[in-house]
């Protein structure tokens, strides 16, 4: 019997305890290895943001902005996310054999030599049904087979009549290339060689590809790829709060709303760029609409929703409703390409002896006009800004102090609008104010507003008017 002393017991317990502690430490220090799914090799729609060079600070809100842009694009109706084919478009149809072993198809020619039995040798072309005629066997389908598979099939068939025939199959003529270019004609059809007409108007390119592939499956099993080879001219109707409503031809094949608005002279002061409506007629005659918020992108410095316009679309710029100006910065729009690029401001100056017109970049301020006003003869303390208010149908006057504006008072350096009138001279301002007080009939439109000042200037200065 083995007897352990107390001292040996203590030593043994100590060794066991230390070994247990080391095991615990080892287990906790080693991270578990878990099988992970490999990242997908499919192309991702998520945008990759690269940090700027030599930058120590990355905007933490940037990813949030990207997410917001993607959400806006996802909110676009599917009817506006796909290009619908119409008359004048052209399709490119590529029919190309798969890489690797050649597979027989309709129109291919083959030669078959049978050793010891020359009477069984033959040449044949694969007919529209995918068959050839073989001596003794009749019709055999070879469509989609490789040369080796076709050779084995013919050998197996002849083996019923000839013991272990030795045959050699060769390709003597390839079928013609079935690829073609197809414009959409006035009836909405394309012409497919060897097939005939196929109606594709109103379909997306993806839907047309499925339909063309189905039609070509009767004569080929090769892959079919369809792409848009030519786009029809794009004409867009622009209406609402723009300077020149009308029908415009776009300079690009698939323009955005931001490409079209400058063609119409940009948005007016009363436009609400938070509510730009796009209307589109579908192939079945129904009308769909989509609202686009251009102001949010302008405010955040991001990109507008990726909505591409098509021929026949209508862009309607809504009018801003009264009481919805809170947080809506018209000066921000004035400095963008979404507004008219230049404005005309008229200066009625008694000291200069006439009424003149200045063309300024949109977004210009009161100080930009003062650069062309002779300040040494002008009464800088009393200058009037007269502006036509279309909602009230009358002129609205604001008194400005040029000296305060020159000293940096932002409240006096107001942003100007198209067709504003600057009146310089204390007596002239007073006379004009008296006239406004005696006018009871409102101005009909901005043209009548401008004519009033031209007539006022001609009467005051004896016909000396600079336009």
TrEMBL record:
InterPro entries assigned: Poly_export, Poly_export_N, SLBB_dom
Membrane topology per record: Multi-pass membrane protein
One Pfam family this sequence matches: Poly_export
Domain SLBB: residue ranges: 236-317
Name recorded for this polypeptide: Polysaccharide biosynthesis/export family protein
Similarity comment: Belongs to the BexD/CtrA/VexA family.
Annotated ranges, domain Polysaccharide export protein N-terminal: 101-171, 175-225
Primary location group: membrane
Sorted UniProt keywords: Cell outer membrane, Ion transport, Lipoprotein, Membrane, Palmitate, Polysaccharide transport, Porin, Signal, Sugar transport, Transmembrane, Transmembrane beta strand, Transport
Organism annotation: Okeanomitos corallinicola TIOX110
Subcellular localization(s) per the UniProt record: Cell outer membrane
Keyword Protein biosynthesis included in the entry's annotation: no
